[in-house]
Amino acid sequence: MKVLFISVHPDDETLGCGGTILKHKNKNDDIYWLILTEASEALGYSKDVLSKIAEVIKNISQEYKFTKTYKLGFPTTKLHTIDFSEILTKISTVIHEVKPEVIYTVNRTDIHTDHQVAAKVIMSCTKSFRNPFIKRILMYECISETEIAPPLPENTFVAHVYSDISDFLERKIEIMKIYESELQESPLPRSIDNIRALARFRGATVSVQYAEAFMLLREII
Fold first, then answer.
1. Residues 7-33 pLDDT 10s
2. Distance of alpha carbon 169 from its chain centroid, rounded?
3. What are the tens digits of pLDDT across the range 42-95?
4. ∠ CA 121-110-130 to the nearest 5 degrees?
5. Which residue, 42, 57, 95, 148, is most buried by CB atoms nearer than 10 A?
6. pTM above the 0.85 mark?
7. Angstrom distance (rounded) from CA 40 to CA 42
8. Quick check: 40 pLDDT over 90?
9. Total Cβ atoms within 10 A of residue 1
10. For the chain, first and last CA: distance in Å?
């Protein structure tokens, strides 16, 4: 099985579905990573910081053992300034190269504008009549983005699918620690304590030790 994990920013994939990535790899599925945005000097990042980010991405890719990592290079925090069709074309190119059966992507109502734009584009370029090979699309929750969205009914993340990651949580946390600059201290959202707590809560919902939750957008059986 070919599985594509889409990150708007590096760390989305680990926060949202790191245990599930490891689980797919453990099943010998072919796993691919698509990163939509990147930092740059034009956005105020130093060469030293950019070098460290590149090294982190390389290390994360190696830890998960992705078959291939794609980087589209759109400016981080600026997706709303890019022509919709340009984003769609580049994502579609990757999808048609990989031909994934399963896609994991960010939640459409996350507080980050980049996530909102990306989710809308991704739905546009995964239409079943153009991509019959896609059998399942799921949105993952990204701690510090999903739960912080305004508490309105239309922004609710409703879990439909749960992935038991009891055997993979500790490894997920080890990998998350590679994103050293993104981690926070408790009680802030992106702390190890809160990553573990969310996994425990999602696990308790379905009577397993730890789980990751997803919204199912489409499934063809």
1. 999 999 999 999 999 999 999 999 999
2. 16
3. 888 899 999 999 999 999 999 999 999 999 999 999 999 999 999 999 999 999
4. 20
5. 95
6. yes
7. 5
8. no
9. 13
10. 14
CA distances from 106 to 85, 113, 145, 209, 216 (A): 19, 12, 10, 24, 12
CATH code at 2-219: 3.40.50.10320
| Residue 134 confidence (pLDDT) | 98
- 30 neighbors 134 (Cβ within 8 angstroms): no
* Helical (H) or strand (E) element with 50: helix 47-64
Give the three-state DSSP class for 72: strand
Quote the distance between the C-alpha of residue 79 and its chain's center.
16
Query: Residue ranges of the domains in the chain?
Result: 2-219
Tokens of 170: 């500790």
Question: How many angstroms separate the CA atoms of 146 and 66, rounded?
Answer: 25
How sure is the predictor about 131, in pLDDT bands with cuts at 50, 70 and 90? very high
Tokens, residue 172: 């997920």
Structure tokens at 101: 């059966």
Q: What sign for the dihedral angle of Cα 128, 133, 138, 143?
A: negative
